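Incident log, support desk, overnight shift.

02:14 A customer reports that sequence design results differ from what the structure should imply. Their input is reproduced verbatim below. On-call engineer (initials T.W.) acknowledged and began investigating.
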């Protein structure tokens, strides 16, 4: 009887393991796709030099300075919105962050401040 009971127990364990093996062998995979958009060529900005504000028409993003820090967003702070009503200079830069070239822009285009952007189309390919 002990042998019969051990045989039944061993059979039950074997069936349990056999049933669990496919479940243990199944793994759930998750695929993640990442899309990277790369913009080649110059990036076009409108620069409002009197207040160090840039606008990227393609991405509809503003870049402005708050103290010594640069900020970006789809809207300017209320205090800065009056400065972009007119003027601005179109500047093409080789960077997605125009403030990285701000010193260069100031050096080369500060004499164009307050002129209409259509009259001043410039490229920067450094």
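02:41 Re-run completed on a clean worker. Output:
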């Amino acid at each position: 009887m002990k042998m019969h009971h051990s045989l039944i127990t061993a059979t039950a364990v074997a069936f349990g393991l056999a049933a669990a093996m496919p479940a243990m062998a199944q793994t759930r995979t998750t695929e993640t796709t990442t899309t990277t958009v790369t913009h080649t060529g110059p990036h076009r900005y409108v620069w409002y030099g009197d207040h160090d504000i840039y606008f990227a028409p393609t991405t509809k993003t503003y870049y402005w300075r708050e103290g010594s820090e640069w900020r970006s967003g789809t809207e300017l702070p209320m205090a800065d919105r009056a400065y972009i009503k007119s003027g601005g200079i179109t500047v093409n830069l080789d960077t997605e962050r125009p403030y990285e070239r701000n010193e260069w822009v100031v050096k080369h285009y500060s004499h164009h401040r307050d002129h209409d952007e259509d009259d001043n189309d410039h490229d920067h390919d450094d």
